[in-house]
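Regression check, nickel (II) ion case 197:
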Amino acid sequence: MPRHRLIAILAGVAAVLLAGVLVFRAGVFDAAPPPAAVGGPFQLIDQNGRPTTEQALKGQWNAVFFGFTYCPDVCPGTLQALAVASDQLGPKAKDLKIVFISVDPARDTPAQLKSYLSADYLPKTTLGLTGTTEQVAAAAKAYRVYYKQVGEGPGYSVDHSTAIYLVDPKGRFDRVIAYNLPPEEIARQIKDAMAGR
Ligand code: NI
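Current build output:
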């Protein structure tokens, strides 16, 4: 067999194996739990320092996701996609609140969240939440969110679940929106939810 052909085959095998690993990882991080088991009460602090509970989710649809402001890729990418999706809702954009819950309370103070979420591209209604280590752990547990500190020292990272949780205006979990979908698809799924589909 010609050598370049062998290399192509080996590369193909490696790609399939890598895809398998990625699917496995995605499954571990994003498995959709049964609806009734997701969400519930929490006590956190918003980016203005105000104590905030699950009551803040009532009165509008909410795209809730967990992350941290020092996140290099997943969180900024998700926020940008949600901002574009929100724009694509047109007049219904006002019926959606983006809710970012920190899994890094040691670094994500309310002030840090406020600075992070005041980016021009984000809707002004975007809600940032943090709290004590225990408060954040309880909120993450309620949403079946995984997170884990990786590395030591000031530059540590945090592995975390990447799914977006859509919560209805009564504060009830509606559905999971998978990570890394195009904004058009995110908008479509939110429109579906708003229309009761
Ligand atoms: Ni992140």
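Comparison notes: The CA atoms of residues 55 and 171 lie 7 Å apart. Residues 1-33 form one domain. No diff flagged against the previous build.
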